[in-house]
Amino acid sequence: MSAKTVLITGASRGIGKAIALKFAKEGYNLVITCREQETELNKTKAELESLGVNCLTYLGDMGSYEVVQELFAAARNQFGTIDVLINNAGISHIGLFTDMNFKDWNEILNTNLTSVFNCCHLAIPGMIAVQKGKIINISSVWGITGASCEVAYSATKGGINAFTKALAKELAPSNIQVNAIACGAIDTQMNQFLEKDEMDALIESIPANRLGKTAEVAELVFQLASGNDYLNGQVIPLDGAWI
C-alpha cells in the first residue's frame, strides 16, 4: 500500500516541525511550507528525509490563494491526493487594539484565518472524490476565551474554531473529519519575548505547572489524523487545565 500524504503549513520550526517529525516517523509523505524561513525549512526537510520519507517543501504566503494553488499543484504532481491537511501557519500580534493599524490587522487575518480557507478550499475536492480525509486546524485557547492585548489574534483563532465546527457538519457525509486543537502556552519561539519573571508567572498560573511541549501537540494531531472517524467538529483544548 502506498504511503499517505500530509500537508503541513508553517512547518519550518516549532509546533509545525514537531508535527512533521511525528508523521515522518509514521511513514507519511510530507509537504511542508513556511513563508520566509527558507534555510530552516530546508533543514527540516533534511531531518525528515533522514527518516526515510519523501518531502516536498514550498516557500510562500498561505494567505495568498494563488500561492496556495501553486502549492497544491506541486503537491498533487508529486504525491497525488492529500490525505491529511494540517493548518498550522500563524503569527501573533501583542499590543493594545487602539494602537493596531489596518495593515497589521490584515496581515494577521490573512496569515491565520484566510490561509485556512485557502488550504481547505483546495484540499477538499480531492478528499470528497475519494470519500475520506482529515483536516486539523491548530488554534488557541484565546480563540475560546479571548486575550487582552491580543484582540486580533484571538479573533482569528475564534474564527478558526467556528470554521472548524461548521465545515465538519458539511463534510461529515463525505467521511471527512475536521477538528481543531486549541493550544495553551506551548514552549515555542512565540513565547521567547517574555522576561524570566513573566515566564515564571505564566507557568505558575498553569495548573500543570509547565508549558506544553511541541511533541505533545504533535501526538494529539496524529491521534486525530489516524484515529476515531466519529470524532468530528471538535475544538479540543490542550492547555494543562489552564483555561
From TrEMBL:
<dbReference type="GO" id="GO:0016491">
    <property type="term" value="F:oxidoreductase activity"/>
</dbReference>
<protein>
    <submittedName>
        <fullName>3-ketoacyl-ACP reductase</fullName>
    </submittedName>
</protein>
<dbReference type="GO" id="GO:0032787">
    <property type="term" value="P:monocarboxylic acid metabolic process"/>
</dbReference>
<dbReference type="InterPro" id="IPR050259">
    <property type="entry name" value="SDR"/>
</dbReference>
<dbReference type="InterPro" id="IPR002347">
    <property type="entry name" value="SDR_fam"/>
</dbReference>
<keyword id="KW-0560">Oxidoreductase</keyword>
<dbReference type="GO" id="GO:0008202">
    <property type="term" value="P:steroid metabolic process"/>
</dbReference>
<keyword id="KW-0443">Lipid metabolism</keyword>
<comment type="similarity">
    <text>Belongs to the short-chain dehydrogenases/reductases (SDR) family.</text>
</comment>
<dbReference type="InterPro" id="IPR020904">
    <property type="entry name" value="Sc_DH/Rdtase_CS"/>
</dbReference>
<keyword id="KW-0753">Steroid metabolism</keyword>
<dbReference type="InterPro" id="IPR036291">
    <property type="entry name" value="NAD(P)-bd_dom_sf"/>
</dbReference>
<dbReference type="Pfam" id="PF00106">
    <property type="entry name" value="adh_short"/>
</dbReference>
